[in-house]
Amino acid sequence: MPATRSPFFSLCLSCAISSRPPPPAPAYTPTHLTTHVLTPFFPRTPAGVRHPPMVLHIYHAAVGEKEFQFSTNIDKRTQETYEVDVNKAIEEVSCTILEQLTGEEALCCTCKTVPATRLIHHTMLFTEVFPPRVEDLPQPVCNSANCEAVAKSSYLMDMEDATAAQGMPSPNGCFHCHKGAPGAETTTVPLQRCSRCKVAKYCCATCQKADWKVHKQVCTPSGR
């Protein structure tokens, strides 16, 4: 049974910018979807514009019905300095967030049968609001490597749907090797959709085949 995907992703983006056997692997149909995007959450600074090194940000995280918020200083001069400071903030609060989860929210988001032992963090920077915000969508997972992989795949699917619904460029590249994603060594590459769900994207049939073990757990037929 495919893992349940959360509807919170589209809500987050809207607020921030205003036991059956697995099916056979779907055919790799070429739609030649090419990605030429920068991350919509970390825009490039225009030439000649200077920002103060450290800027106060609101860090907001949501897990199910629980929300966590605090302020933190982040060096936003470059993507690298931003990531360093956000990772520091995550290290400081990750255990606290996990400890405060209760009930179903404290279970692994993939298998939903055992308590989560860690969080997978997914952060997005929104600079067009004041004060600027870091939105984090942590996923509680257990020690299973498969549960972690499925959770990450589910996040990519949710983000793909949410950005499309908002008319925003996708931040995702190939779902397996990540070519075509902002920050990847190769940011311009033809990407082709999974013919079954019409959401997951791959740069080649080899990547699609390699990812199928995980993707089949979140892949559902497209209604389109």
TrEMBL record:
Pfam families noted in UniProt: zf-MYND
| Keywords of this entry | Metal-binding, Zinc, Zinc-finger
Q: Where is the MYND-type domain?
A: 174-219
One of the entry's Gene Ontology molecular-function terms is: zinc ion binding
SUPFAM superfamilies xrefs: HIT/MYND zinc finger-like (SSF144232)
Give the matching InterPro entries. Answer: Znf_MYND
User: Where in this chain does the entry annotate a coiled-coil region?
Assistant: none
The protein, known as: Mynd finger domain-like protein
This chain's source organism reads Leishmania tarentolae (Sauroleishmania tarentolae)
From the broadest rank down, the organism's phylogenetic lineage runs:
Eukaryota, Discoba, Euglenozoa, Kinetoplastea, Metakinetoplastina
